[in-house]
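Q: Start with the shorter request: fold the first protein.
A: Done. Sequence, then structure:
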Amino acid sequence: MIRLLIADDHPIVRAGIVGLFADTDGFDVVAEAASGEAAVALAAAHRPAVVLMDLRMPGIGGVAATREIVAASEARVLVFTTYEDDDQILAAIEAGASGYLLKAAPAAELLAGVNAVAGGHTVLAPEIAAQLVARASGAGRAMNAEPIPRLTSREVEILDLVAAGHSNPGIARLLCIGESTVKTHLLHAFEKLAVRDRTRAVTRALELGILPRQP
């Protein structure tokens, strides 16, 4: 069972999300929060595997709540919101969110996203990945003064598989290499991209045009 905390300040929306997971095998909604502060407190009290987090809520809001939850627990945060502003996307990911889905997504995509995040994968809605690509290739991205990191072909290949949702063991099997080798390549990529985790590595590589847009 995947233990879930649902954080959304709209009671009707929250009830709908809770109902979806309550009617689906494999999920247990252990708590509901209507503010960022409540989400932080309930995450500490109930230790969910995944926190489904709206961004704009009363109090500290979803980004700050994500940062506190990730810093204080092993819970993984999946942002689920109506907002797709570039700055909001990057702020949430830099705060430690493991994925970003829009509320317009079909129920099957949300269920799959929570399963993926609980399994240690990164989840980005196609619209979000496209925006990051557009941000990278836009005329105003001011990359002239900042050289693009030179990743090896293997590092790019592994990041592309991370972006597609594969775990480290899965990547090792696909490429017929050891899991420790996968981790080493990822650590080298993290260093070159100046990031600290898989999610930010993928989004940074998308921003810089190192990875192709996901289908």
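Q: Next, the second protein, separately.
A: Sequence, then structure:
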Amino acid sequence: MSPLRISMILMSVTLATAMLSGTAVSAQNVTPANRNTLVLQGELQMLENRLRRQQYQQQQQQFRAQDRVVVPQRPDVPQMAPTCQLQRSGSRFIRTCR
């Protein structure tokens, strides 16, 4: 397992533990005992956001690398030869090509 995946799993477990312990506190009932929990939850959220950004950037780098490897071939499209006709117009001839 990559270190990135391990850290993601650890952060998910920590978040699940914090949520299951019932530490959801409203802004009106902040006590000194709850402050540390709220601070830890905020730090955990920041770490998760940072991890998600890193994963997104790595995924984009992989996609760009794949795009560089695949060189699209120019399609071979058959072309039709123009059909031209000479038509008489008065004392001149006019060429009509389609």
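Q: Describe the second briefly.
A: The two ends are 64 Å apart (CA to CA). The chain has a mean pLDDT of 79.
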